Amino acid sequence: MPAAHILTFAQDLSGGGVERAQLRLATEWLAAGRRVTLVIGDASGPLAAELPPGLAIERLDDSAYLAQRRITAIVRRLRPDLLFCAGNHYTLVAAWLRLRLGADAPPIVGKLSNAVDRGDQGRIVAAAHRIWLAQHGRFLDHLVAMTPATAARAASVMRMEGRTSVIPNPPAPRQAAPALPASAQRTILGVGRLVPQKRWDRLIAAVPALPGDVHVVILGEGELRPALERQVREAGLGDRVHLPGHVADPLPAMAQARLLALASDYEGVPGVLREALSVGTPVVATASSPSVREIVGSPALGSVVAPDDAAGFAAALNHWLAAPRPAPVPQPGADSAARYLALFDRLA
Fold it and tell me: Is the CB of residue 203 less than 8 Å from the CB of residue 261?
């Protein structure tokens, strides 16, 4: 029996990597003839332009996380063949659906979007998080991770051995996008939401250690914009650090940049690293996930440094400002949507 109707859910379309990949997959599932419904708290935001034609929208008109509890009634009314939980952030919704629907719940597939071991948690919080992860096998039927290392770790911690698959995100389609600022002759690019996880303050703090003609451009939007703008202003870096906001397709900017930097405390499988390497742009990244070293698998592609090594981070940035660019590395995932559908059909 095919999974003819797939239902997925999200809080908003503010521009996160989870939602970007979710919409890419939905686009390809629709093209394959499946019915896809998105339950969304707030359908406005930067990613609204990427909603594919034919996608059924169920609006909650409330972006608060607790509003997602209303999905239960929507599932009962629409009776989809499968539920797709697009990232770790939403697995509590999946648990709620399983609790409320019981045996009437369709199969639930969750995708691992962040590493199970987070770098921003203290010992007590990390222990509580580990207990929560261990419950996932009770309410998820299957787990998808994007690299072998993250899949192996997740299967163990989440007690889902034998119910885990490795499927990378599909590559982003090319779109028109603005070029980098004309003043940025040598640019270090950051791409991601302006949220605590991404630690853009680390990248900004490294700017004084870089040559004076080097600029930093961070593409993204989020709650930390005022704090980051204040950091830039107080450091006197207003002419070297640029925060132009979200862009639909960062690949043209990646191709122009001298290198891409990722300074996160924790990640899942950061697609921006694969995107940058696909256009021959080297990367400097913190060791924020086991997948980072899988992606940056050769010293010729970039550098991976400890999250708390500020001096090492700045040194790596300086090195790649002068080092040769690597050869482009093709992105995986061209058949990812089809592989998901094969999995969904087997579960349905």
Answer: yes
Place of tokens 């390809």: 28
Strand-pair category, 56-59 with 5-12: unpaired
Q: How far apart are CA 218 and CA 202, in angstroms?
A: 12
Of residues 257 and 16, the one with the higher pLDDT is 257
The amino acid at residue 298 is: S
DSSP code at position 53: T
Please give the C-alpha separations between residue 163 and each of 3, 110, 192, in angstroms, as whole numbers. Answer: 18, 11, 30
Residue of 38, 190, 204, 8 whose CA lies nearest to 113: 8
The position carrying tokens 């995100």 is 169
Phi, psi of 211 (to 5 degrees): -55, 150
Helices (H), the chain: 17-31, 71-78, 91-101, 123-133, 136-139, 148-157, 200-206, 225-234, 251-256, 271-278, 290-295, 310-322, 336-347
Q: Is the pLDDT of residue 185 over 80?
A: no
- Say which residue, 302 or 266, is predicted with more confidence: 302
Q: How far is CA 118 from CA 129, 134, 167, 194, 246, in A?
A: 9, 15, 21, 18, 25
Model pLDDT, residue 122? 80
Strand partners for 242:
217
How many CB atoms neighbour CB 282 within 10 A?
A: 23
Q: What is the pLDDT of residue 194?
A: 95
For the entire predicted model, the pTM comes to 0.83
For 159, left (φ over 0), alpha (ψ -120 to 50), or beta? Answer: left
Instruction: Enumerate residues 6+ apart whose C-beta is below 8 A from 265.
Output: 118, 119, 120, 196, 197, 199, 286, 288, 307
Residue 10 is predicted with a pLDDT of 95
Amino acid code (one letter) for 30: L
Which tokens hold the place of 88? 């770790």
Q: 112-148, pLDDT tens digit by residue? A: 988 787 767 788 988 999 999 999 999 999 999 998 9
Task: Tell me if residue 13 falls in helix, strand or coil.
Answer: coil
